[in-house]
Amino acid sequence: MFMELIQQGGIVMVLIMLCGIFALGTYIERSLHLHRARIRYEDFLKGIMNNVGRGNITEAITLCEETPGPVAYLVKTAILHREDAKEAIRSAVADASRAEISRMERRLVVIATAGQIAPLLGLLGTVLGMLQAMLPLEAEAPLIHSGDLLGGLRMALVTTAAGLVVAVPCYVAFNLLVIRIDRIVLDMERAASEMIAFLKGGFQDDAPARR
Fold first, then answer.
1. What is the per-residue pLDDT across 77-134, written as a single tens digit (0 to 9) for each?
2. pLDDT in tens, 40-78
3. CB of 76 within 8 A of CB of 93?
4. CB 114 within 8 A of CB 107
């Protein structure tokens, strides 16, 4: 049945299937990556702050390096810049945050593109199928057999349905990944703010800030 549908859809059906395969592979890879990237940042920060508070900077940095995800990387960046002014730490953390967000969003364009292209390919298959169905009408009119039309009509219907079957899950998958990334970004912002406040909490700001 499956191979029969591919044969009826022709090359357009193959292209739609490739879109679906690439989108599925990307979704699985990104899902695993984001699953590893999100941690319970409250517990992580507690351990980091305990180490930094006791002066165990090396242990704190090692813990950051051993912990996966962007939260640990931002905290490590803040620790490495702990001697700088608060604004300098914030700037360094912001730069690191943009790089981590870009890394999390990597290859999402594959899913978005597949979701946009699949229905267009389905529409292309519909047009080609209707053209294929119209050719016998011109060549054999007025004696037309229904079997001469069915091939083109099948191609039109199969490719249209396949395009929608691929596009809808692609949109759902893309939005699910975006939601997960947004949650991680929120954790990043909270962890960075708490870490910066902790690092500079025991220090006075520079003179302009005191005024």
1. 999 999 999 999 999 999 999 999 999 999 999 999 999 999 999 999 888 888 877 7
2. 989 999 999 999 999 899 999 999 999 999 999 999 999
3. no
4. no
Report angle CA 10, 114, 183 to the nearest 5 degrees. Answer: 155
Torsion of CA 15, 21, 23, 28, to 10 degrees: 180
Residues 6+ apart with CB under 8 A from 208: none
Distance, CA of 169 to chain centre: 14
The residue type found at 148 is D
Q: Is the pTM of this model over 0.85?
A: no
Instruction: Give the sign of the dihedral formed by CA 105, CA 108, CA 113, CA 115.
Output: negative
Residues 192 and 211: their CA atoms lie apart, in Å, by 26
Question: Tokens 């640990």 label which residue?
Answer: 72
| Nearest C-alpha neighbor of 64 from the set 184, 189, 182, 192 | 192
Q: How many C-beta atoms surround the C-beta of residue 121 within 10 A?
A: 26
* C-beta of residue 52 within 8 angstroms of C-beta of residue 60: yes
- Note whether 119 and 163 are within 8 A (CB): yes
